Amino acid sequence: MPPALIIFLIATPLLLFGARAALPGIPWKRYARPSSWVDIGLIALGAAGLVLHCVAMFYPSLIETIPGTGGYIQAVDGMSTASIVLYIVPAVIVLAGLRRQRPLALTLVAVTLIAVGVTMYDGGPLNVHLVAITAAALSLAFTTALLVLRPQRTGDRAAPGHAATGR
Asked: Which of 24, 46, 69, 80: disulfide with 94, CB 3.0–4.6 Å?
């Protein structure tokens, strides 16, 4: 994976969440939906799993510094059923965390994650896989930064168009 792409994939979410912290119009309240802390935890856990899978595939020496990860690296790098499961599980966890979001955003993230999986295991060109990774990372970063609202505190009014449960 080219270093410029890695920098882009790290910088984009940082910039988006920095903009979210600095600009009052972000997240887009008109389109955003509240999530629970469990949802946010699922998104973070799934995203960490996806990043770990990617790093194990492209930069296994970084993961090797963590004791006991040799089997994980071999499973991911083996491109076997175990590798597929180790990709699908965190992807599904991310989608479970996004389940309260607008169907279009959830679908976009799902389709891009499927594209990553297909291009990873179909034996096609690496550049197509890298484009799929970029699309998935951007769709997830934009969705979480622009559309995911923090859980409402008890006593807060529900967001317009949403029940008091925040769903």
From this structure: 46
Split into its structural domains, the chain has a count of 1
Asked if residue 162 belongs to a domain, the reply is no
Cα–Cα distance list, 53 to 79, 105, 136 (Å): 11, 23, 14
Question: 5 lies in a domain?
Answer: no
Q: List, as own/partner pairs, every contact residues 81-85 make where C-beta atoms lie below 8 angstroms and the sequence separation is at least 24, other chains included.
A: 83/121, 84/117, 84/121
Model-level pTM? 0.84
Domain range enclosing 41? 36-149
Over residues 141-161, the pLDDT tens digits come to 999 998 988 887 765 454 444
Inside any domain, residue 48: yes
68 lies in some domain = yes
